[in-house]
Amino acid sequence: MNRFLTVLQDDKPGSALLLVLLAASVIVPASNLLLAETNPLHLPTYSMTLWGKYLCYALLAVAVDLVWGYLGILSLGHGAFFALGGYAMGMYLMRQIGDRGVYGNPVLPDFMVFLNWQELPWFWHGFQSFWFAALMVVAVPAALALVFGSLAFRSRVTGVYLSIITQALTFALLLAFFRNEMGFGGNNGLTDFKDILGFNLQEDTTRAALFALSALALAGGYLACRLITTSRLGMACTAIRDQESRLRFVGYRVENIKLWVFTFSAALAGVAGALYVPQVGIINPTEFSPLNSIEIVIWVAVGGRASLYGAVAGAILVNAAKSWLTVAFPDAWLFGLGALFVLVTLFLPYGVVGLIQRRGGRA
């Protein structure tokens, strides 16, 4: 307990963020469920779900900031861990449909019936249980990160080469999940979800609960990462980022530190994906797109890496801007995103948070 209090005392912006998240987990659902639609303080379900999606993105950005900002690993493939967590939750949601699908098959999802599958693939067994799916949400991304990290870090792959192979990883998964014979719905992915734990996903109460869970998950993920970065492990991470060879020289097992933090970050990304899927109602192979992983890095760069709360701010700012600009200027959005990354890299190396801190220091 003392450790938690010490961490929060030394992190005023983070403490404020946690208070906002805890308040939002109560106030936002209450404004949606308790206030009449005519009340000016009423928050429509669409807006609540949209903000729930932003919070999932923010949790993903915190996971990337942990490995990029503090460990110096520029991962361009974290979208893969996010998507794997999303697919694990999507498989559970598909099993909950039962015989309410288009073809009325109580065991096989609709896309398997359409493709003439005769029986459920072995890797779909167990996903009728929520707790098994919840375990897979964490275990599958973590296992992939563990295997990938073991090979990459023990081979001492670093820098731009590591970034390239992380992107190759997510691109390979993108191609694999597009194949119908993989058993994940091909290019259509998994959709037409009905309910979760017996609660209708279209009900406002369910969506309010998912928003609250997203806010609490972000708060928990932030706090966990903050505990890591302020511990001896966190100091070792920043030492690896700044002087890896020196740390190796004094006897630290650098590979083990990288592997542990990278695996934890992947599991966190998987949780973000699992909360994202029931709120947007679909998961398909485009979530593995390398462009998605690059966008995550841009969120962190815009907010300010190595600050955690900067990653949260960057994810929300960029995605809120994206929601508006893709409607107002759909053809120019990607050019704007690229220009934003270049400008931030050149003129704001520590992002918006760095700019605010610099101005605060001058005042």
Q: How would you characterize the overall build of this protein?
A:
By secondary structure, the chain is an all-alpha fold. 71% of the residues lie in helices and 2% in strands. It contains 14 helices and four strands. It has helices spanning 2-9, 12-33, 45-70, 78-97, 110-114, 130-154, 159-177, 204-229, 232-249, 254-280, 290-303, 309-328, 333-347, 351-362, and strands spanning 190-191, 195-196, 199-200, 282-283. The strands form two sheets. The chain has a two-stranded antiparallel sheet. A two-stranded antiparallel ribbon has the order 2-3. The mean pLDDT is 91.
Outline the low-pLDDT stretches: none
Give the strand tally: 4
Number of helices: 14
Taking strands numbered 1, 2, ... along the chain, how are they ordered across the largest sheet?
1-4
Order of helices and strands: HHHHHHHEEEHHHEHHHH
Main sheet makeup: 2 strands, antiparallel
Binned strand content: under 5%
Task: Give the helix proportion (percent range).
Answer: over 70%
Overall morphology: globular
Rg is 21 Å
- Overall pLDDT metric: 91
- State the distance separating the first and last CA atoms: 35 Å
SS-based class: mainly alpha
